[in-house]
Amino acid sequence: MDRRTFLRGSVVGTGAVALGGSLWASAAHGAPAQPGAGPYGPLLPPDGLGVRLPAGFSSRIVARSGRFVSGTLYLWHGAPDGGACYPDGDGWIYVSNSELPLVGGASALRFAADGRIRGARSILGGTNLNCAGGATPWGTWLSCEEIQFGQVWESDPYGRNGARARPAMGRFKHEAAAADPDRRVVYLTEDEGDGCLYRFTPATWGDLSAGRLDVLCAPAEPVTGPVTWQPVPRPEDWATGTRNQVPAARRFRGGEGAHYRDGKLWFTTKGDNRVWVYDAAAQVLDIAYDDDLTPPGSAPLTGVDNITGRPNGDLFVAEDGGDMQICLITGDGTVAPFLQVTGHDGSEITGPAFSPDGRRLYFSSQRGSSNSVASGVTFEVTGPFRGAA
């Protein structure tokens, strides 16, 4: 029996192996998300920048790797990856990682209230393969190194404070971080074929220099259901490695993006093309999307990667490869393409993040149309997003 047949029988059908989307249903979603018509309508032909968007939306390029950001003398970094937005007076800031070896780091674009670029700067340098990360409630950016024994670096989007390593958050192949202000913890994904999901509890909320690192534990089967957490004894231990200290740790097939909102953590795994949802209060794990749980040949979302969301419950999931799309998973469990970048077939979509007012979406094509880390393109999309301020 192949994986698709097994999962459809266990998750969608009998529920004998999995919860069958019960957590998804409790959040007014029903079963794991299925293909359908998106709320914004079909994608139109590519615009002048090669971006396919629904009617009423438009795109522009705000930065290109190796070129000066408009109106500045700042060269935009190569291989743009994870990103986030922050309020900045009457404007905002978009932060973007650089997934380059040895000279990675992160940069920030500053925007005026009318969307004009009014500055750009480095906020982190000299680090290694900075992939994804996450914003904190106190206004810093957690930039994650995707290398063996990598670290989380906490940096200041506003440029007031220097960046600092946070080794207490573990030494492993970091991918994304998502802060949970309700429980005062930070969740961390691991980009390994048998990666773990971690939870860091700072000794003092707002200070990540010390605290306790736990790893999620559960049997490999059932696929979903109740979970527990166990402490990692020595998170900074290079000899054993953070990921190998708790035998009961649950393994995931390539942890990618993470997003927290309203008591739930949403995270993606690329090896099985899943979006997971973890109910933090109930400590229950479920599947929000799996391409093997859609009708054969119908899955619009493949190559799951970075993920972000909106207050109305919509999730936006970027593709690493796939069809170079950002797909939307609605609150009622419908998955559909929201945008597509054409002519960038060797690239991946990275860093989706909304401006604080929800009216603009930022993202990058990491390697651009020439499939080179020196050819990344960072875009902005504007339009009638649901739930914008």
Automatic annotation (TrEMBL):
Pfam families: PD40 (PF07676), PhoX (PF05787). Residues 1-27 form the signal peptide. It comes from the Bacteria. Its cofactor is Cu cation. InterPro entries: N2O_reductase_N, PhoX, TAT_signal, WD40, WD40/YVTN_repeat-like_dom_sf. Keywords: Signal. This is PhoX family protein. It comes from Yinghuangia soli.
